[in-house]
Every structure is written in C-alpha cells, then in structure tokens.
Fold this sequence. Notes:
It is built from 14 helices and 10 strands. It is an alpha/beta fold.
Amino acid sequence: MTNRLPTSITEHTLLPLIAAPMFLVSGVELVTAACKSGVIGTFPVLNARTSEALDDWMQRITGELAAVRETNPNARIAPWGINLVTHRTNPRLQSDIDLTVKYKTPLVITSLGSPAPAVEAVHSYGGLVFSDVINVSFAKKAAQAGVDGLVLVCAGAGGHAGTLSPFAFLKAVREFFDGIIVLAGAMSSGRDIRAAQVMGADLVYFGTSFIATTESMATQDYQQMLVEATMDDLIYTNAFSGAYANMLKPSIVAAGIDPDALKPKENVDFSHLVSGETKAWKHIWSAGQGVSFVREIESTAELVARLRREYAEIIAEEMRGDAWTNL
Ligand SMILES: Cc1cc2nc3c(=O)[nH]c(=O)nc-3n(C[C@H](O)[C@H](O)[C@H](O)COP(=O)(O)O)c2cc1C
C-alpha cells in the first residue's frame, strides 16, 4: 500500500484513525483522550462558544498533550485537529483562523465551504489542511485549492452525510487526486478500518462510535438512544439546517415532531451553529448507520483498544491467506 501520510502522523498514531469532529459532542476531554490513545482527536471550533473560549480550549489541549509527552517520551501521542466551517455564513471564521495559527494546530479540516481561506494560513506553519467533501465536483474544487487531504463523506455517515458509495467515490477521486484520502461514513470496527485501507484510503474517520464514549459531551439520554437504536431508526433529511443529515427518529419524536411530516428547508444557513440556537443538534440528535453497532458506553481508551485488537485479528487473517492468495 502506498504511504502518503507524513511521519508526523505515522510515527505518532497506533491506528490510521481520526476521531471525527462533532458539533456539541467533541471537546477538550474527547480530543485529549483520543490523542493519548493513539488516534487523531479533533473538534469543531464552534463547540467553544466564543473565540476566547476557543483560545482556552487550544491552550488546554496543547498543554495537556505536551505534559504527557514530557513524562513519557516514548508514548505515541497522536496529533490533534480542528474543524472549521468555512461557509460564508460563519462570522467567526477569521478570528478562529488566527487562533489556529497561534497554536499551530497540526490538522485543520474544513467543511461546508471552500477550504481556500484556511490553506495559506495553515501551510505557513507546516500544518495539514483536509477538506470535507460529499461529491466529486466539490472534491475537484477542494483539490484545486491546494489541500493536503480530502475527507470523503459517504452514504450512511453521521451528521451532514453524502449519498455516494465509498467504492465509487474513492476510485473517482483517486483518478485526479494523489493526496491523502480519509474515508468517512458508517464504519465502526477494526475490520472496517482495514477494508478502507484496502480500498485505497490513507485514514479513516469515525464519528458515531465516539459519541458513546465517556469523554464525549453528549448527554446520557443521547448515548442511551445510540445503544438502543439501529440504522432503521435514521432519517436522512434537510429539514433542520437545509443540508441533508442523518438524524435519529426517536429524538425527533421526543421533540414533539412527526418525522413523517418533515418539510424540506430551502436555504442552507449555518449561522445557528454560532448563534447558540442549536435546537436541531441539542435536542434532535444525529448518528450514522454504524449506530447499529454501538452496544455500550465505554471510554475512548477502551474503544480504541478494541479497534486495535480487531485490526490485528484481520491482519493475522490476511497473513493466513485464502483460496485465491496463491493462485
Ligand atoms: C452529532 C454529529 C455532529 C457532527 N458535527 C460535525 C461538525 O461540526 N463538523 C464536521 O465537519 N462534521 C461533523 N459531523 C460529521 C463527522 O465529522 C463525520 O463525518 C461522521 O460522523 C462520520 O460518519 P460516522 O458517524 O458514520 O462515523 C458530525 C457528526 C455527528 C454524528
């Protein structure tokens, strides 16, 4: 397998995995727990409700990870990252980019808009820029803007998911993009991580699995709903932000809304993510199709340890070969 990943990732991680940024879910605890477990931890900057709070979060993350590295120089502490909403309706974009530069954030993932506003700033200190995309034309535009990686958000992902099959999408993007590819959507096991690599992905994005960890900011009710729900409980709708997302029907019902009577929302507007009017994500919850495999609430370290065991089992299986290996 070609290795396109820089040593800043390969030498400091225990799995090719990113704990994906999730609105109202990922914060300082989840990010630091992920990095200490050997996988890249990320959060959306808008989870820190002001730029001052973001400054504090970044200071805590960098401080805590530096302290662990100091006491245990041989430990693999993975890099951390943020998600920037680069849509024009985000009024905090410039001040958040300034903080990104101040803390030399190793990985910046842009979503819901062109990555262009972040590329030069992040490259100025040697950081990596990945852009979240849901179709081939967005992927081409992001590649032209000079990103280091593309996150292909496929069908079945939690949050604002796409509709493309990972098989077709990844192959189509590889025809014009030789950078890092992160595959996203509905994955939840070590076998899934390995399968994504075999398909040609360099890294894998897990969101839903990390919502049900003890370090996530999700409420207990939300986590319990994940344990009980299956993929049949999801609805793919644009009724809440104007962009299509997979939402949990039981949470829509609990909010007094009939999931079968949702009206499409015409205008895409993400300003509610900044303004604090977060009903859609605070009380109406999202999950990807991997929700069927969330069976318990566990710590991030336990989740990553399980994924590493599963991944190692698959590698052992591959070494044993199969009926076609030696033909
Ligand atoms: C509750 C929730 C909130 C999310 N919020 C964001 C976000 O703020 N920014 C972002 O780039 N992606 C967001 N996502 C998408 C994830 O980063 C990731 O693409 C997705 O969870 C991967 O699919 P999976 O959940 O099936 O693993 C969110 C996903 C969920 C489930």
